[in-house]
Amino acid sequence: MRRLNVELAARSYPILIGRGLLGRAELLLDHLRSPRVALVSNVTVAPIYGNAFIKALEGVGVGVTAIILPDGEAYKTWESLNRIHDSLLAARCDRATTIVAIGGGVIGDLAGFAAATYQRGVPFIQIPTTLLSQVDSSVGGKTGINHARGKNMVGAFWQPQLVLADTDTLQTLPPRELSAGLAEVIKYGLIRDLPFLDWLETNMDGLMARDGDLLAEAVERSCANKAEVVAADEFETAKDGGRALLNLGHTFGHAIETGMGYGEWLHGEAVAAGTVMAAE
Ligand code: NAD
Ligand code: GLY
Known about the structure:
The protein is of the alpha/beta class. The protein contains nine helices and nine strands. The protein has a seven-stranded mixed beta sheet with strand order 1-2-9-6-5-3-4, sandwiched between helices. A two-stranded antiparallel sheet has the order 7-8. Helix 1 links the parallel strand 3 and strand 4 (about 65-70). The N and C termini lie far apart (about 40 Å). The structure holds nicotinamide-adenine-dinucleotide and glycine (GLY).
């Protein structure tokens, strides 16, 4: 298992990366405020990973309230956020309940915003299962939902207690989603890590073939870059460079996503096209 740390003083947290981590529910125990979690997932990921993980949590003495949402960018909305809040209240979840997101960036952003807002803020754990969410969205504390007038326009900075990235989950990812995730990986090479860009060019075939060791290496090097950027400029206020660098291609990309209708282009696809446009 590879381990990194996001250094944010009192809000610091570890990123654990490796194979088979979903089978190790005990890794969460040190990061829970009480033995109770609300697990947020969607109808695609829950049957593949969520249900087994719930059993694993119960096996180590953790009570679970499962909140399963529809799948897709089109559901990153107030309605889904309300569904999470409704379920938390119905299950009488209190401030010590940890919200655990298991899924891609849509679930992570939604569950994180629910954690930031439920009872003025409850603990949060990210279990990203797409390449994009393992290398980007699960790290750094940006949470939120889309608005009809713009992507991610409503949200909060809310750091997780832990990020647990099981790279085995990438084996079930649809090919289009793998490629979309690679756009955010390549981004780190372009903005601040040329040796990583060289490494990606050398190993792209192996990454596309889902070689487990190469994927773990790509996730670790991406997260190391993101952790450094976030530690230096958590709230994206630096005048030059800083966290805004992570938004390379995103101004065009978000316009494509909003203009085409959420879910028409995948986020990573829009970022890839936006990066080419920004470069031009
Ligand atoms: P996604 O969450 O829509 O997931 C992609 C698809 O893969 C979904 O259909 C999902 O159900 C499915 N899926 C997830 N894991 C799977 C697995 N292991 N096997 C099979 N199917 C699986 O998309 P995404 O690319 O993960 O995330 C995109 C979202 O992340 C966007 O909303 C974007 O704005 C956000 N984002 C946020 C940040 C941030 O810093 N918070 C950064 C980048 C992107
Ligand atoms: N994905 C951009 C950021 O986290 O700042």
